Structures are given as C-alpha cells and as structure tokens.
Amino acid sequence: MKLTDTVIRHVIANGKIQMHSDGGGLFLYVTPTGKKSWRLAYRFAGRQKLLSLGPYPSVSLREAREKREEAKKLLREHIDPSEARRQAREAAAEAARNSFEDVAREWHIRYSPKWIPAYRKAVIRILEENLFPHIGKRPINAITPRELLAVLRQVEERGALTIAHKALRDAGRIFRYAVVTGRAEHDIAADLRGALAPTANGHHAAITEPVAVGELLRKIHAYEGNFFISRALRLAPLVFVRANELIRAEWTEINLEAAEWRIPAERMKMKQIHVVPLSRQALAIFHELYEKSGDGRFVFPGNRAGTNGPMYRGGPLRVLRQLGCATGEHTFHGFRSMASTLLNELGYNTDWIERQLAHCERNGVRAAYNYAEYLPERRRMVQEYADYLDMLRGKVR
Question: What is the pTM of this model?
Fold first, then answer.
C-alpha cells in the first residue's frame, strides 16, 4: 500500500525502528525516537544496496518518489546510484576548490613575487573590488563570456572604464592559467576583446596592456635589420624621451660612468635641461652603440653618404610598421605613453613620473631649478621599470 502525507504525519515513535514501504524499494525509515527519513533499497551487480534520500519533511513524499525514479533510470543505464552520488559530491567539492577566486588567488601567489609591490597590490585590489563579489564563488569552468561581460559592464557603467579594461586583462590571465592547469577549457576573456569601450590614449597611439607590451618588446628585440634603428627601438621604452630627443642624442651628453644622460635645454621641448638616469639595460645598449659610433658626434649617426647628421627620425617608425604596429595602434612617441600608463598602474609617485617624462612644470619659479628633482627616486624607478619590461618580454602567453 502506497503512503500518503496523512499516513506519514500520523506515524509516531514506538521505541522501535519502523519501515513503511511506498513501493519500488522506497520506504520511510523511522527511528525509535520518531525521526523520519527516506531510503531506497535496490540491487546492483547482484548485491543488495541502500541509498538515503534525505529527511522528512525536508524531502516531501513527492520529491522522494522523484528521486526513486531518477535512481531507477540510472539502474536501467547500468549505473549505481550510490556511486553516481559519490562522484557528484566529489565533482561539487572539486568545483568549490576551483572557484574563480581560488584560481585567481593561486595565480596571483604564483606570479606576483616577480612584480613590483605596488603593481602586485593593484592587481589583487581590482579583482577583490570588481570581480570576486560577483563571480568569485563560481566554478571557473562554469563562467560564461556573457556572465563575465555583465560584471565588466557594471564597472564600465560607473565610469571606471580603465578599471574595466584592467579587470578584463587580469581575467584573461587567470583563465589562461586555469586552462594550463586543467581547471578550464577556454579563455573566455578572449571572446570579449573589443566588447568594452576603448580607453583614450591621448594624441599618440600607444600599446599599454602588459601582455601586448611584452609581445611588442619581443618583436623589437628580434629585429636584426639596421643596427642603429634596432638600438633606438630598444632604448625608447627605457628612457621615455621624445623621438627627436633620442634620435639627435650626442655623445657629449652621455656619461657612461655615471649612468646618466643630460639633455641640454636647447634640445628639450620645454627648454629646460633634462637628466635621464640610465638603467642597467639602457646603459648596456649605450655601450653597444659606443662601439659603433663613439668616435663621432651623434649616438645615432645618419647612414646616408655625404651627411654628418643624425639618423633619419622616420626610420624607427617605419620599422615599427614593419613589425606589425598599425598606425592607430602605436607610434614612436607611444613609448612615453606606455611608460606613463604602466608606471601609474604600478603605483609610482606621479611627480616622479612627470619629472622623468620632462613634462612642463606648472610652477614657473620652480621650473628653472628642478631638472634633477627626485633623481634618486627616479633612478630606482627606471631600473625597476626596466626589470618589469624584461619580465614582460620574457613572459609567454
């Protein structure tokens, strides 16, 4: 006789175990103290087995019968319901261990020791404030492109467009890490390229996304054409100067022993002397150049017959185009924008960055006296930045 809710409610404790059948192996199990639960008796591979279906009334009679039918369906497919449940529990536990936040923090712990502390903090802060609250607990392999885009749209709509782009960038890095560690099958962030409104890069197009910066630097270092053009392109990301200031550099301005380049006021846009501290990487390039042109006036001499002038300034830009940098993607001047964006993102003092870029001093009284301002701090900053660029260049997607 099948059970009814009325019958079940009237079953009371009698000091003994009670089992009230509903048919098909399903029965209500009652403890000596009156606690009720559902169980299913079945045979699999010749063995009698028992499966708990949950307590009553949390699991109703109707739900218990549905669970019985689900178990019977598995049995018809030669699947043990108990084993299926165990595997489901393990899969759920595995998914919980592989949430987006767990994988993201694992990725951050693994790679952030190579980063500058300010950048390390900036990356995790963007994740904690913008992504974790929405998709942090979701299994990383269950997140869809549309779901991620919806979260990024919220960031975009509150006016934080740059943060939205950085969040998308870091999501991509996390998903790629999940792919190589077997927790995801696809980098869904890659499907969202172009989905966000573009950020403004000012008048000069510049590549500023770290992965893309690394790709550009690898292309530049692989270029083996004109020696002076190749070294100009390698120096440009390290010294932050304008194209004309670099191309017309003279050896009298370079102090290799002091690792310093002093550009006279007449060659500067703002007509102020500018001191450029040189990183180890920049100094190594200047030593290479000295072997080739140190006995002449210009660091980058012209290669046309009959001229004693500097190299043609359009040469480096032409090579950038040959390397695949489209007109609207990156210019030679874009290395300055690249440095400004990355250094600000890394958390460096804005005054150090502005002084290193030789931007106009707002206070005219101070302007004549501050060409060496923050020089010790800038020396440290340019060296750490050069090391950071080396890390990006050596980084493989």
Answer: 0.51
